[in-house]
Model the fold of this input.
Amino acid sequence: MKALADQRPDVIVLDYIMPDMNGIELLRKIRGVNKDIPVIMFTAKPDTGAIKESTELDITAFVPKLSPYVDTKKSLKSALNMAFNML
Done:
């Protein structure tokens, strides 16, 4: 988290399921360091609890991936546009 405080990226894109912690846990840590940075979270398994929790942590976008009903690349472009318009 020190690197996040020092480098201040424009946007963070993360996955919900990761090896050592889930995206919500990482989002909580990110918000402990920076409440304003736009964060986009991807997930192959969206669930209402994770979406609700990430919304409470002021996520910019929660994007499902690998779905026949969602164009992931288009969703990421849209989320990035939204994030950069917030800056």
Observations:
- The radius of gyration is 13 Å.
- The first strand starts at residue 12 and ends at 15.
- The chain is about 45% helix and 15% strand.
